[in-house]
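Researcher: Can you fold this with hypoxanthine in place?
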Amino acid sequence: MSDSTFEIPNSIKKHHPQVGLVLGSGLGGFAELLENHESFDFSAIKGLPESTVPGHEGKLHFGTIGGVNLVVAQGRVHLYEGWTAKEVATGVRVFHELGVSTLILTNAAGIVNANFKPGQWMLMSDHLNLTRQSPLTGEARFIDQTHVYSPQLRELMKAESRETGSSRLYEGVYAWMNGPEYETPAEIRMLRTLGADAVGMSTVPEAIQARALGMRVLGMSCLTNYGAGLSGSPLSHGEVIEVGRDAAAELFTLLESAIPAMVEI
Ligand code: HPA
């Protein structure tokens, strides 16, 4: 199938990352913390789709954090750009091919649970796939999804968060919507009724693909704004990017100590 093939050059294959990190909208900057840093454009891997969204840079960074080999994708692609769920998950298959066994997925998300506050992080405990698209269509069948987001990795993040004294780390259910438009207030009320705490347009296809390949997944949502109708103001992509940028430093501090611990459990 043409949309699921890719070619990794030897210059990239020679890196052997154990942990992969995907950075969502406005969450760039982590690469600066990498030691022995080398970066490539997405275009270096034939078949890896490239994003058209502002705030998604389209770079792959390799390096180490506390002795752990890491690959960081700055930018990702989405259904709303016209890609299929399988194409959206190509990067995860590339990571798997490179040797990644632990995958950290981040995103910007709107708040559905009105008890949550913008600018804070939410550990994804589970998801609602409301797009009805799957990266596994025509491929792996009947994959168990009881624990898509690793309970061990979530516990580790909570412990690290207590230790680094960072602000509140929420935990909740992420609803995956097609976009590209934001939701209506009625849709936000519907999502709350369905059990969602946050809403976004990414991450779920990558998580499903990663689980099908046997990887451990950690999902982190940056709560950039109240969902439509929960505050008086209209939503803007600029605000999403800005809040994400401010909250990124906190996540990076947390990940710097958590990543070396992740490979031990
Ligand atoms: N809705 C959907 N996706 C989002 C939002 C939102 O409110 N904020 C950031 N990504």
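Model: Folded with hypoxanthine in place. Residues 39 and 61 are 4 Å apart (CA to CA).
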